Amino acid sequence: MNLFSEQLRAFISQKNASISQMAAFCGIDRSSMYKIVHGTRRPGSDALVRQIALFLKLSPEESGILQEKYLILQNGQETYQRQKGIHAFMQTCFDDGPLPVPYNIEELFSFSLSDHQDSSMALRGKETILNVYGIILQKEMERENGLIRIRMQPEDRFMDLLLALRCFRRKENGFRIQHIMSLDGSSLSEESTGVNLALIHAALPVCKAYLGYELYYFHSNLRTEQQSFSFFPYIVITGDYALQISRDLRFAILHNLPETVFFCAEMFSRLLSSCINMTAHVRDYRDLLFFGKQRNAGRGPVLLDMFPCMSFCLTPDLIDRYVIRELPERSLLLSTFLDVIEQDREYVTSSPALILTSERGLRTFLETGLLPGYPSELYEPIRPDDRILLLQRYREIVRMRSVTFRIIRENFANTSSGSSVWMDDHCAYFLFQDRQLHHKYLLLRDPGILASLHSFFRNIREDLCLSQAQSLEILDRLLREASE
C-alpha cells in the first residue's frame, strides 16, 4: 500500500465504482488495475492517472490530489516538493499581472508622524511598525528620484505592503528600491537550496512590479543567524528616516535626525558594495544585446520562451530588412546583433540544448510577426512570407539530434507572457516584461538553485510538457496551416 493507492481506494469507495469497469475504460487488464489499486504495482504513466480520474468523475480539486499522490509515488516526497517549489517559482515568473494585495491603504495608515519631533522614537507591535514602514515608504515614493534602502529578509506582509504602495508611485520619477537579503550559504544541500529559492520567490512579485527595484544578496548561515543575539538586524532607510527593526518584527526605532539617517545610509552603502546583484534594468535594445553576449552554452543551454526565441534562426539579410533604418549607429547595431545570433546558433546546435515554448506563442508569431523578446522600437513586424521562412528554419534546428524540443502545456504557466529564460552552467537569465513593455533581468547564480532548475527542466514532468514527438507534430501542423 502507498499514498497513491490509499487515495485511489478512497475515491473508488466514495464513488461506489467498479474496478473491472475502470480497467476496461482505461484500456488495461483487470489484474493490472487491481494491483495498482492495492499498491503492488505503479501506474504506468500520467495519462493512465488522468484516465482513472476521468472514469471516477473526479472534480479538478480531486484530480489534483490524485495527481499529486502519483507524482510523490514516482519521484519521492523530497524531489516532488523541490519540483513543486520550482514550478510555483516559474508560474510567478511568467505571471504578467500584479498580484492582489490584502491592504486598504487608507485604513492601514492610522499612525501619524506629524507629532514626531524627537530624534528617535520607540515602536512596539508589528501593526504599528507596518504603519510607520508604509508611511515613510509612501513619502519617499512621492519624491523625485526617491530612494528606499532595505536590509531585510522578504517578510510576507512587508513585501505585500510594498506591492500595495504601487498606486502612490508617480510615473517616471526616477524612484528606486535597493533591497539586501541574505541567502543560506551553510551548505549545498537540497534543503538549503529550497530555502533560498523560497526567499527569492517571496521577493519576485515586487521585483516585477517596480522597474527600479534592485535586489542584492550575500551568503550566511541562516540558521545560526536566526539564533544569534542581534539587536536590530533589519533596517529601512529613506531620505528623511531610518527605521531599525528587530528580527521578530515586534520592536523598532525610528530615527529622523539627519546626521543619524546619513550615517545609516553610509553603512548601508558599505554593506551593498560587498553584495551580489541579482537584477539588471534593461534600458534599451543595447542592453539586451549586451546581456545576450554574456550567455554561454556550458554543457547545454536551456531556453524557455512562451513566444518562440528566433535569435538562432535569424539571418543577416533578415536583420538588415527589419531592423529600423532610422536607428542611430545602425551599422554598429547590426554588427553586434549578428555576433549575438551567430553565438546563439553555435550554442544551440553544438551542444545538447533544451528548447521549450508554447503553442500559443508559435501561433501568435505566425499571426503578428512580433518577437516579444526584442523591444518594438528595434524592428518592424516580420512579413507573413518571412514568418513562414523563419519558422521553417526554426523547425530545421529543433529537429537536430543535439536539440530537445518540447511544447509547454497550458497548466505550466501563463503562455501569453512575454517573459523568457536562458540557463547555462553559470547563470539563469530571467527576462521579464512589464505592462509598459519595459524589460528587466533577474540573474540567478546560486549553484544549488541552478542545479535544481536544470534538473527540473531536463526531467520535466509529462503533465507540464508534451513529448518531443507531440511537439514536433504540432510545429509541422502549424507550418502546414500557415503555408495553406
The radius of gyration over CA amounts to 26 Å
Helix content: 40-55%
Give the total of domains: 3
CATH architecture term of the largest domain:
2-Layer Sandwich
* Strand order of the biggest β-sheet: 1-7-6-5-2-3-4-8
The level-1 CATH class of the largest domain: Alpha Beta
Low-confidence stretches: none
Tell me how many strands there are. Answer: 15
Q: Briefly note the structural class of the backbone.
A: alpha+beta
Number of helices: 19
* Share of β-strand residues: 15-25%
Distance between the termini: 54 Å
Mean pLDDT: 87
Q: Characterize the biggest β-sheet.
A: 8 strands, mixed
CATH topology of the largest domain: Endonuclease, Chain A
Strand and helix layout:
Elements: H1 3-15, H2 19-26, H3 30-37, H4 46-55, H5 60-75, H6 77-93, H7 105-108, E1 120-124, H8 126-141, E2 147-151, H9 156-164, E3 176-184, H10 190-209, E4 213-220, H11 222-227, E5 234-237, E6 242-245, E7 251-255, H12 258-272, E8 276-277, E9 279-282, H13 285-294, E10 302-305, H14 316-322, H15 330-350, E11 353-358, H16 359-368, H17 384-398, E12 403-408, E13 420-423, E14 428-433, E15 439-444, H18 447-458, H19 468-483
Q: How is this structure best described in words?
A:
The chain is α+β, with helices and mostly antiparallel strands. It folds into three domains: 3-75, 434 Repressor (Amino-terminal Domain) (Orthogonal Bundle), CATH 1.10.260.40; 105-277, Endonuclease Chain A (Endonuclease, Chain A); 281-483, Endonuclease, Chain A (2-Layer Sandwich), CATH 3.30.870. Helix content is 48%, strand content 16%. It contains 19 helices and 15 strands. The protein has helices at residues 3-15, 19-26, 30-37, 46-55, 60-75, 77-93, 105-108, 126-141, 156-164, 190-209, 222-227, 258-272, 285-294, 316-322, 330-350, 359-368, 384-398, 447-458, 468-483; strands spanning 120-124, 147-151, 176-184, 213-220, 234-237, 242-245, 251-255, 276-277, 279-282, 302-305, 353-358, 403-408, 420-423, 428-433, 439-444. The strands form two sheets. Strands 1-7-6-5-2-3-4-8 form an eight-stranded mixed sheet, sandwiched between helices. α10 (190-209) links the parallel β3 (176-184) and β4. The protein is globular, with a radius of gyration of 26 Å.
